[in-house]
Amino acid sequence: MQTISVRTTQNVFIHYPIASVGERILAHIIDRLILILYTIALFALFIRINLNIPWIWIATLGIPWIFFSLTFEILMNGQTPGKRLMNIQVVRLDGTRATIGNFVLRFLFGFIDFYILGGAIGLIVVAASGKGQRIGDMVANTSVIKLTQQREVTAQEVFITAEENYVPTFQQVVQLRSSDIELMQRALEVDRQHDNPEPLLALVEKIKTQLGIQSDLPPQVFVNTLIKDFSHYTSRG
User: Is residue 178 part of a domain?
Assistant: First the structure.
């Protein structure tokens, strides 16, 4: 499976799989269904109130069909409602967050991808590019990745739970945030499931430097201890 290395807020790279053609098609269909429902609802409203102003019809019914994807990708950091439901996201090919300029380029060249030969060009290029890129992605230096679960975590749901009489090891963990603990969980998952310890090792060094911790614990044990310590302090409120 092809992957892209995505840089996290801790400057640690985690490998994400490239979104499949099927996932991108389903996301596109979901977005179109949302637009269809919006159009039907607004059309019915205009008929009911007997609105006969052409420019309002054009602006409120036509413009959203053109700028739907561009607007949502800018506002939702590379996702539309369809992409959010399919858990996929537009990122730069180097893994960093796409800019407004990247999204605009994807949008402009999307007319070639989607409206020439009924979208066949876009599908062929995505399937053949090896990096999940359509023409718009190639020009904008972007691709679409499949995300892992990234919702806000809580001690009860995700953290490794500390025993009732647990004695924390590293008091410095109070400086961390829930997002830092989530990143540790993801690094552990990459290490376990993909036999790739590099994100975990890089993260350990970053955390030790950030918190001023010196420890000879193995990386997996060290990170698990940090998570338990964080859970202990946060559960005490």
Answer: yes
Q: Decide: 112 and 126 in contact? Cβ < 8 Å.
A: no
Give 51's contacts (C-beta < 8 A, 6+ positions apart): 45, 57
How many independent structural domains does the chain possess?
A: 2
- Host domain of residue 7: 3-146
184 and 137, same structural domain?
A: no
Output the pTM of the full model.
Answer: 0.61
List, in sequence order, every beta strand (DSSP E) within 61-194: 88-92, 142-146
Least confident interval from 15-29, 36-50, 143-157, 168-182: 143-157
Name every residue whose Cβ is closer than 8 Å to that of residue 11 and which is 6 or more positions away in sequence. 202, 206
- Position with higher pLDDT, 9 vs 3: 3
Query: In this structure, are 103 and 22 located in the same domain?
Result: yes
CA distance 123 to 136: 12
Within 58-99, residue ranges assigned H as helices are: 63-75, 81-86
For residues 70-86, give the mean pLDDT.
94
